[in-house]
Every structure is written in structure tokens, then in C-alpha cells.
Sequence to fold (177 residues):
Amino acid sequence: MPILDSKGRLFGKINLLDLGAALVILMVIVGIFIFPGTSGSVAQVGTKTVPIEVDLIVRGLNVRDPQRLFDQGFTKGGKTNVIIRNQPYGQIAIKSIQELERTISVPQPDGSVKEFSDPRSNNFSTDFLLTLEGEAEVTDNGPVLGKSNVKIGVPFELDGFNYNFNASVIDVRLKAK
Fold:
């Protein structure tokens, strides 16, 4: 009996193409489960985690009752969901919230400029300063929350039970552990 017959079968029973495909599948399974490789990314090597405070400014948020939003949605010591550059980060603690008075710049007869309370009444628009605190990894490019660098000017999307709006980073402070 020949080793290969006229149809390409080994000893007349096993097709060589089927045998080759079975060996490739077996090697892939061995490679995945027995030698999975390293886990994690190279970017995490050599980074340290430190406490971070991020100040956000919210301009012109249209809301009927800002105080109710602060009492129900945002509470000092509460948490909010954060999306940074369209990448969900998760929940982060709210350290403080401060409503900002709306002002208008008025030129004076002597050429100087003074700020006064805005006399125009728009009761449904509010500005506020929000301070968030959490843990960030520090890399050579600065602090990182989740997979996104946190720098001045980066947009944050804040999402909760009864709100979803954007804010902009105006200050980033790293704390020593």
C-alpha cells in the first residue's frame, strides 16, 4: 500500500489538506490558551497613581431651577458619571460646586472697565464652577483618567439621572499622596 494514493490521501484514509487545517487550528488553540502572552499595555509600566482635582467651568447651562439641580443632581460629596473625549471614564466624586454670578463689563468715562451684575434677567441660564476629585495615573504627557489625558481645555461630559451637559477643564491639580 502506497503512503499517498492518487487522491492525495495519506494511507488511503486522511486527506493532506484536512490534516494541515487541523494542525493549524490546533496550533492556534495552543497559542491562545497555553501561551497567552503578557496582559495589560506597555503604557501602564512605570506609571503611578495620585489624587487629582479637576476644576470645570459650565457656561450658559439652561436649567429652570439651578438650586434644585445642585440639591438633587450635584451634591458635595456625591458622584457623577464622566465622559472624557467621548471615552466613558466612570464615576468621579464631586468636591465642590459654586454658582457664578453673571456679570457684564461696563466702560467708564475715564477709559477703565468695571464689572457689574448683569441687569438683563435670564433666569434659565446659569454658570457654575465644579471641582471633581479622583485618582489619576501620571505619565510623561500628564495625568490620565481612564484612557484620556486631562489638560486645561479638555471637554468633559457630565451625565446623571436628570442631567447631561458639557463642561470645560480650567485647572488640574495633582496632590501628593
In short: Residues 16-33 form the longest helix (18 residues). The chain has a mean pLDDT of 84. The two ends are 78 Å apart (CA to CA). The helical segments are 16-33, 66-73.
